[in-house]
Design brief:
With 455 residues, the chain is an all-alpha fold. It has 16 helices and no strands. It has one domain. The protein is 82% helix and 0% strand. Helix 6 packs antiparallel against helix 7 and helix 14 crosses helix 16.
Amino acid sequence: MIREALSGEHRDYTTGKISRLIVLLAIPMVLEMLMESLFGVVDIYFVARLGADAVATVTLTESTLVLVFGIALGLSMATTAVVARRIGEKDPEGASIAAVQAIIIGLGISVVVGAIGIEFAPGLLRIMGASPAVIATGHQYTAILLGGSLVIFLIFLINAIFRGAGDAALAMRTLWLANAINIILDPCLINGWGPFPHLGVMGAAVATTTGRAVGVAYQVHALLRGKSRVRIHLAQIRLNMDVMIRLIRVSITGMIQFLISMASWLALIRIASLFGTAAVAGYGLGIRIFMFVILPSWGLSNAAATLVGQNLGAGHPERSEKAVYLTGFYNMCYMALLSVVFLCFAPQLAGFFTNDTTVLPVAVLLLRVLSVGNICYAWGMVLVQAFNGAGDTTTPSIINFVCYWMFQIPLAWFLATVAGMGPKGVFSAIPTAEAAMTIAAMFMFRRGAWKKKKI
């Protein structure tokens, strides 16, 4: 089954045993998600040797990038939903036309975002609460990563096309290639090995952007040469306003959904910055570890989204619902195991990346607090992706707004400042809000309105 999943063989996900299809989709999607997270883990591994200011630079920049990721993920989610629906309807040409329109939208947005990032990098770090030392150390890192928004958008969007079509293995190979380039270039450019210049923390940004650019080149080749179920022909590379408007309609609430979620993380790190650079660095390190190890869960959730979209397109809503419940159960089992790992081995996990006596305890505390909410969060992420796979981006947007902005952020500020809990108060608000989100998502999912969504 593993060989079959990694082979990239085209198959019909609207028929057959659902549990088997979940595994066939999830294996390459899990590996894809692990590879995406590996960008940040590799960067923080090498940058951590440069000191707390360098780690804080990477953390604050990544926190700023969440806004870029939110836009890219919102558009990507809509793209996956539309492509999956067209594939389920046995309309590959419609899927190709939707893919082209999504790429055109992404190109336009990324140019604007990149220009803003290059021009205002120091100011963005200052807004995030960076000290003058952090700004001096890292503003070029921030400018390069934000300036390279084009490759961020394209690698997200085209992989979304592959996932919607059921070509999860292509998305996985893209990030294998991109990460291989990043892993090779990171230490060379950060430390100035051999003929490479000594760029310090800026070298991590150059390596990451270069790796993603190579990955995009591979993706474009796959789309144009017919390696994917979605093949783009030159005649299709033109504006199609009807399809573009439909994509934008789904994308806007999708972007809002992810921006709400990611901006809440931005607010949390801003609150954490009230307690010094060590708190920011520990938060950033702990979150990177957490996001890396839960990415298999996002891979499972993405598999559910593809199955929901394709089976709704094929007129099988009952298969879509069954796929969500099975995926949620598998995800719960995995996240429960992670809770045990975090509770028992958090010092060893964080200690692998840093031995800073001020940063390490903060990262350990974060991992242990987050472990409390893992089982509930496992169901929440699958349910949200099920809505997205159906093209219903409005419901999770409302849920995220209420649970994160109206509940999580005020609670984090209250616990950290008024209640005097400091960083622990910020961290405690996270699993509490995730539990509220999961309960709300399950209630809305069981109502079943998502089964009737037209896109």
